[in-house]
Specification:
By secondary structure, this protein is mainly α. It has a domain of about 60 residues. Helices cover about 70% and strands about 0% of the residues. It is built from two helices and no strands. The longest helix has 30 residues. It is elongated.
Amino acid sequence: MMGKLFSALAGMASGLVSGLLFKQVWKLTAGESDAPAAADLDRRWREVMIAAAVQGAIFGLVKAATQRAAARSAHPRRPHPGAA
């Protein structure tokens, strides 16, 4: 029960963190405060697709880091296979 609750909270936190991180990255790289929305027809396809790809990469990175940290905290440290 606690594991599922922690997992849900970690998932929500990772979504929030990745959204905030993406906004900062977009602001620094594109010089704009908001990324283009997919439905914004005043924006070019290329700009929308680049924003979506960057957002997806950041989300995937944050999600993997969150899941890895949760897995490490749930299990005791084990030596790496092949380590002497």
